[in-house]
Amino acid sequence: MPRLFVAIDLPDDIKDRLIEVSKGVAGAKWLSRDQLHLTLRFIGETDEKQFQAIRSLLNSIRGEPFEIALKGVGQFPPKGAARVLWAGLDVPPALVALQRRIELALTGLGLPPEDKPFSAHVTLSRLKTPPNPETIRQFLLKNAALQSPPFVVREFVLYSSFLRPEGPFYRHEGVYPLTPEVS
Fold first, then answer.
1. Out of 8, 14, 28, 37, which one is annotated catalytic?
2. What's the CATH number of domain 3-177, 3.30.565.10, 3.40.50.620, 3.30.230.10, 3.90.1140.10?
3. Exactly one of 6, 121, 139, 156 is catalytic; which is it?
4. How many secondary structure helices (H) and strands (E) does the chain include?
5. What confidence tens digit (pLDDT) does each residue in 118-147 have?
6. pTM of the predicted model, to two decimals?
7. How does 143-179 read in b/e, with b if 16+ C-beta sit within 10 Å?
8. Any catalytic annotation for residue 172?
């Protein structure tokens, strides 16, 4: 079974904006337009039984649609040699709550908890060999004011990831509309 993750797909205009800023760092492996997303929970490899249980479980996640917007750029790790360049988001409480509900549901299914705290970002590039720190500094300065108009998140997606020499290919395995809990 391929690797799985739960994410928010981004509107086309937001992906276009992110592609515009994805340049200027020699040696960076920029993500393609189809690879841009906001990861809510990485799951990893599963067997068929777990896969079916996860697909079914995600149907039970509820929450109101909410708005988010792009806000700035950064790097991982935050200090030292950059390994990842990312676009930040203005994070509303509804996004944090959705991520938490997904995390609790998946750990309740027996999956190990995430080993890092949730950090809302969209990965732009991976860096195998960290470039000159000045190049990274210039990229961060040039794009520090990155913003977008708010966009509405109405669903989240279960993706599978297939590794290929030209980069990963992502496939939708399930799309889950955000719907309020019924009282």
1. 37
2. 3.90.1140.10
3. 121
4. 4, 9
5. 999 999 999 988 888 999 999 999 999 999
6. 0.94
7. beebebeeeebeebbbbbbeeeeeebebeebbebebe
8. no
